[in-house]
């Protein structure tokens, strides 16, 4: 076991329910080993600007069910994306130096970043290029970090989507209406597909399989032919209409520090196309509701296992890895294995399941 005195933690990227449960587990596990936990505020901005707080048992008391992150988050990126010889490479900015200075000044022996592939990508580059001792924790409602069956926060988002679909079903049925429900999921359809199946969606549109308006129409009309006068269409924000050349509906000009264009609007786009063909419908965009609220029991357990395991891996000197869930087991997954395969597409098993029960 390595001698660790101080571990830094930070939470970056889009938040989700379950992060606080994870912070709590890290602190509680670390206290058992007399390790101090330093929480950096707002993702990578914290170590860049040396903005941090010491976390004690008192600071994490009562946060288990709370959504969000007590540390705050941001999409700050200390690297810059550039194209070299037709390849994307990440060049360090002066912010990398500032992170290294902060870690040295505060005598941080290991760093636990919690976030999706952007946040963990920074961790990986700091590990590879600068020997920063990192253990990552995959957290994103999109569930698209490879190397783990589930990312922290995904199940809580599914619970929100499922409840929303349950609620929309009753009004859709009463009014004999078609509802289009747009959910998050920029590159992968985990939320749309699993939420759609759990909530009884009739047509489910995911980024992995481009769709045409005709197909959607056929799905709804087939239900009408069976006397079902209402339909629920679940569409991922990153779904790709063939009519738009298989590209997602994006908010042009709005790009974040990791080079992602802000998505959103496919629900309204689809509604307009259906109306043009004489089909009346309503649109509900669930948006950031999916990221808020209390964590499900599954996510609280996952958060606690992930947090405790991250400290354990640091104690055992396992760095350059992230924690992952495989079946029932928590495993150490090399970041060099997980990140090149991210964003992870939805498991085809669920696409087959949807087809098997007659869902597009
Ligand atoms: O957390 C990931 C994610 O939920 C994506 O599905 C979505 O595109 C993005 O966050 C939106 O985040 P924000 O509005 O916070 O930039």
Explain what you see:
The protein has 2 domains: 6-152 and 295-341, Rossmann fold (3-Layer(aba) Sandwich); 155-292, Rossmann fold, CATH 3.40.50. The protein is 38% helix and 22% strand. The chain has helices at residues 19-32, 45-49, 57-60, 94-105, 117-130, 154-175, 190-198, 213-225, 266-276, 297-315, 335-338, 348-356, and strands at 6-11, 36-40, 52-55, 79-84, 87-92, 110-115, 135-138, 178-183, 203-205, 231-236, 250-255, 261-263, 281-285, 321-326, 329-334. Helix 5 links the parallel strand 6 and strand 7 (135-138). The longest helix has 22 residues, at 154-175. The termini are far apart. The mean pLDDT is 96. 6-O-phosphono-beta-D-fructofuranose binds next to loops. Residues 14, 140-142, 184-186, 237, 263 line the site of 6-O-phosphono-beta-D-fructofuranose.
Output the structural class.
alpha/beta
Question: What level of helicity do the residues show?
Answer: 25-40%
Q: Give the cofactors and ligands.
A: 6-O-phosphono-beta-D-fructofuranose
Proportion of residues in extended strands: 15-25%
Total individual domains: 2
In the predicted model, the low-confidence regions spanning at least 5 consecutive residues are none
H and E string:
EHEHEHEEHEHEHEHEHEEEHEHEEHH
Q: Helix count, per DSSP?
A: 12
Q: Which strand order do you get reading across the main beta sheet?
A: 3-2-1-6-7-14-15
């Amino acid at each position: 076991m390595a001698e660790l005195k101080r571990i830094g933690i930070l939470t970056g990227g889009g938040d989700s329910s379950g992060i606080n449960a994870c912070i709590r587990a890290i602190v509680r596990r670390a206290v058992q080993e007399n390790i101090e936990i330093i929480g950096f505020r707002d993702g990578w901005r914290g170590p860049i600007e040396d903005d941090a707080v010491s976390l004690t048992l008192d600071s994490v008391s009562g946060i288990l069910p709370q959504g969000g992150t007590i540390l705050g988050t941001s999409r700050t990126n200390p690297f810059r994306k550039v194209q070299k010889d037709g390849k994307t490479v990440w060049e360090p900015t002066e912010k990398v130096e500032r992170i290294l200075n902060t870690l040295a000044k505060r005598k941080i022996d290991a760093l636990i970043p919690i976030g999706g592939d952007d946040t963990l990508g920074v961790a990986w580059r700091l590990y590879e290029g600068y020997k920063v001792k990192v253990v990552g924790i995959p957290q994103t409602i999109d569930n698209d970090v490879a190397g783990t069956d589930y990312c922290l926060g995904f199940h809580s988002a599914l619970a929100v989507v499922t409840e929303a679909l349950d609620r929309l079903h009753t009004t859709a049925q009463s009014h004999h209406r078609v509802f289009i429900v747009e959910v998050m999921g920029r590159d992968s359809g985990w939320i749309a597909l699993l939420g759609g199946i759990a909530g009884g969606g009739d047509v489910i549109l995911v980024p992995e399989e481009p769709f045409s308006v005709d197909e959607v129409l056929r799905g709804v009309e087939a239900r009408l032919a069976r006397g079902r006068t209402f339909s629920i269409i679940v569409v991922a924000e990153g779904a790709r209409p063939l009519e738009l050349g298989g590209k997602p509906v994006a908010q042009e000009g709005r790009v974040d520090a990791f080079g992602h264009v802000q998505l959103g609007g496919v629900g309204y786009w689809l509604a307009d196309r259906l109306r043009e063909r004489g089909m009346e419908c309503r649109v509900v965009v669930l948006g950031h509701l999916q990221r808020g609220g209390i964590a499900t029991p599954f996510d609280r357990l996952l958060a606690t296992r992930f947090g405790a395991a991250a400290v354990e891996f640091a104690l055992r000197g396992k760095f350059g890895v992230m924690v992952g869930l495989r079946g029932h087991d928590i495993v150490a997954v090399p970041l060099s294995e997980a990140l090149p395969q991210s964003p992870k597409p939805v498991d085809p098993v669920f696409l087959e399941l949807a087809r098997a029960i007659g869902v597009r």
